[in-house]
Amino acid sequence: SAAGAEHQHQPPYGTEKAQARERTHAREVI
């Protein structure tokens, strides 16, 4: 429930940036 509230509270573009960061981090790990 708390996670859902945080997700709604954060802007959509924030999620996209987070995903991009995860993808970049994954490339660095690989």
Automatic annotation (TrEMBL):
Region annotation (Disordered) ranges: 1-30
Biased composition (Basic and acidic residues): 18-30
Protein name in the entry: Uncharacterized protein
Source species of the chain: Tetraselmis sp. GSL018
